[in-house]
Amino acid sequence: MRRTSGSALVALVAASMAAAAIGTGCEQIVEWEEDAGNLGDGGDGGGGDDGGQDAGPDAGPDAGMDAGMDAGIPDAGPVIAAYLASFGPDQQFLRSPADVSPTYPTPLMVGITRDGETGAVQVNIGSSDASVAGVTGGAVIIPSGSNSAVVPLTSREGGTVTLTATFDGGTLQATVTALPKLLLSEVAAGNGLVMTDDEFVEIYNPTAVSFSLAGYVVQYHSSAAGPYENVCTIPAGKRIAPYSFFLIGVNGFARAEDTHDNWAGTATFNGGNGTVRLGAPGISTAAGDPRALDRVSWGGSAVDPEGTPVSLGIFTFGSIERKATAGSTSGTMNGADQTLGNAYDSDNNSNDWVTQGAQDPQTSLASPEMPP
Fold it and tell me: Which candidate, 158, 131, 108, places its Cα nearest to that of 281?
């Protein structure tokens, strides 16, 4: 059998101890035991076996551990992050069609909490039906230094959707209802001759989108205090085409119309003062309901006007009609502006409407009229 020399034995012991160190806890990252063994060999020349063994197992692992922890692993440093914090308010509304428009009555916002992160942050926004309401590109950018951003929405038809905001594993949801951009275009009270309950309400669609009118409600408010009254609910299956009209006959209205209903309350439109409102399905009878699409008031004592009421009451033999342009008059609405629709809307009844001496209601069978 071949004998192992003293110095070779020391090296073998050091190597064995190094192998044992590799298998234990943090010391598996230590890579300096081979050098420590050489120190043991050096002990042969000076300190003998004790010097080699002391320097190998003790100095090697300790030095390796310290060097590895100090030089091999960088400090973690501060955490830099951001987290999804808010998405709302819930149950907001949008007028359709819309292109990158905010919701109402309060803009939909997405918010984050910053934890060291200072740069721009992208939050993904998904939709259950992007044709009703969605974010172009599917994401909103929260600028550097800001904690929130408005969520601009695009819509091509009415309805209700669920929007989902997603960022860094966090998810929040909010609902938005898109309502069509429909306008009241002509309103008349009783004609004062044969009967006093001969009312009609004409609706105009100033957009290139066809909308369902099922469940939409016409309401009336007299000059007295109290809530609105429901005049007529449009039945299922009724639609309004692009740039077209829809006519609602009320009570004794005798001419052809798209739908008809008897007055639901105890009164008729007052020719001197009153307000008519068009609302989406689910509208309440309270003033300020966000499901109201449009309203018009006439007479100085009218309640809940847009801006100020039309100064004159509804003529005994006539009506009030929405303008085609800002410069339209009663005369041009029977002349140069007659086929330009009824789309002018500054949210001020006295600016947007004119009085007409003769009624001219249009049904869904009338020719479409595109706004200028």
Answer: 158
CA distance 239 to 338: 23
Cis peptide before 89 (omega within 30 of 0): yes
Instruction: Give the integer Cα–Cα distance in Å for 99 and 35.
Output: 71
Cα gap 44→56, rounded to integer Å: 12
Q: Cα separation of 104 and 367, whole Å?
A: 33
Report residue 234 CA to chain centroid gap. 28
This prediction's pTM: 0.75
CA 192 to chain centre: 47
Residue 14: its H or E element: helix 6-22
Best CA proximity match to 268, nearest among 161, 343, 195, 216: 195
Q: pLDDT per residue over 307-334, tens digit each?
A: 999 987 666 678 999 999 999 999 999 9
Token couple for 59? 């100095």
For residue 228, what are its two tokens? Answer: 């609105």
Written as one string, the DSSP assignment of 311-332 is SS---TT-EEEE-SSTT--TTG
